[in-house]
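**Fold tokens**
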Amino acid sequence: MLACALLPGCIFVPRTTLVYDEDCQIAAREMVLEMQQIGAFVGCRGDGCAAILAGAGVVAAASAVVSGSIVIAGNIVYWFEKQGACHRLADAEAKPDAPPPAPAPPD
């Protein structure tokens, strides 16, 4: 990833995937950070080349920070979503036909 960040034309984008969780027996969503090349420089010379390379490095670093933050926030949300679904599955298996609790007697 570091090599792509130093090369021109690379950006980082968040992508959502589905993964199967064996313990909960559910398909859960997960975000990953993916590198994508949006262009390549065939060749350049002089000070203009240095400016282009520096600008491309800034864009790559900024996309890594922004997209990385999105991935972290998204994975936190998906983790809570998975925990909620997993607990419901575990509770349903633990008490398949349990009757509702009896109401308390009046005082």
Summary: Confidence is low (pLDDT under 50) at residues 1-7. The first helix runs from residue 2 to 6.
